[in-house]
Amino acid sequence: MAEQRIEEKKKNSAVEAEEDEAEKKKQNENVDPELFSCLLQPVTADSDPEYISIRRFLLFRKADSGVLRRRDWRCNGKGYVAYRNFIQRPRNWESLQSPSLQGTPGNSGRWIPPQSPLSHLYEADSWSSGRDQQNGNPDSSRRTSFSSNASDSDRPRQGGAEPAYSFVGMHCIFDQCKASVTVLKFGHMSSDLLAYGASDGTLTVCTVSDPPSIIKELKGHSKDVTDFDFSSNNQYIASSSMDKTVRVWEISRGLCIRVIYGVSSQSCIRFHPVNNNFLSVGNSNKEITVFNFSTGRIINKTVFDSEVTSMDHDHTGQLIFCGDGQGCIYSVSMNSHTGALSRSHRHRSTSRRKSPVTTVQYKSFSLLARGPVLLTCTRDGSLSFFSVALEIKGYLTLRCSLKLTPRIHSIRAAFCPLLSLEKGEYIVSGSEDSNVYFYDFTRPTHTCVNKLQGHRFPVIGVAWNHGENLLASSDFYGIVIVWKRSKTT
Questions:
Q1: E strand segments, 369-488
Q2: What percent of the chain has pLDDT over 90?
Q3: Helix (H) or strand (E) holding 70
Q4: Torsion sign (Cα): 412, 417, 419, 421
Q5: For residue 169, what are the contacts with CB-CB under 8 A and spacing of at least 6?
Q6: How far apart are CA 290 and CA 231, in angstroms?
Q7: Rounded mean pLDDT of the chain?
Q8: Are 287 and 279 in contact (CB under 8 A)?
Q9: How far is 443 from 451, CA to CA, in rounded Å?
């Protein structure tokens, strides 16, 4: 009898243990993590205990109702992104819907165009963050966070290219260079002064006005010209090279008036937009160095996590935006009087494979972001469009991105300033299939709106002139083509 009682006690204890475990599992399943976030709300010293408890209770009820509403949307076949879009929609969201577009074979198909004016709330197109919502401006608060895939071979949209992207043809061709043209730019506030650097170390300055001609051929670098920049009066050019030197050229005489020697390859260079006596240079030694243009002496420098591959100033000269070899984008504050540098923000690349940044370009205003914006391009074909918060020392917010085919060469991209009056946000980029492509960041599918055919080798560099009527492109074989845009009414 005693043995039977012991066995019964063991069975009862085992059953009770199982019931306790089942209850614990149920409690864990019913626990809402948002409840803990409400309970862990910080309490200030002068807070009323009753108010704190009521606030926590209301927050918990709010979180609970949100979970139930999301479950209802899941039951209807909609995801959380669609639910978020719906609850954060602006008041005039019906008038913000654009007509649906047809897809293209080159896109990933992850973003399906809406079939009705009401269905855009169910797509993966999110509205702005809470900070923009608090501003109370629904037009400026729209934020497209999709990331569409497109190949360089996407054919333009049916029905013809955008009117502002119609080109008459080739304005002129420069073919005297025998090496790859790695970078080209028009002069500061100039419509006819063009310069381009090549992998053989030469830097050519020419004019595209009738008749087009070469002004000077600057020789001095022993390796690739990685970047150059015009001074504000277009009298000087500062160039960087893989031969570890920075050279300053006087264009009128075609002479190198200063050579600055470094310890590593110099990859990017910019004149200060306000104080032209400052020259900022990024190198493969993970540094940005500020030189005195007159003396060549180092004023200041700052160190980064990887080699600095591309950079640009904002229009005030108080910020430098640069990209490194790991795909990160940095905002650096700069004192226009002393040249002092200080790192402000860093935007890390979300890609698993880190790829160097080939383009960093700043624009002072965009209709899409209602403020300053930044364009970046990496070698793996990722184009990113950021809004810039100047009041927060250049804090970057990713607005939208576009994934193209990966590249072997360091192909560059540029804003299309002439289309700032249009509804979209357009950029132009070279490609390895020898074409020049125009993309619209705001299109979730069929992002390619036009392309120019004329090169026979990979197109590496692109640049607009100040008058926005000429586009220059360079290829791997050393050909520079200047395209003339057709007049639009």
A1: 371-378, 382-389, 395-403, 413-415, 426-429, 435-440, 448-453, 459-464, 470-475, 480-485
A2: 45
A3: helix 49-75
A4: positive
A5: 483, 484
A6: 15
A7: 77
A8: no
A9: 16
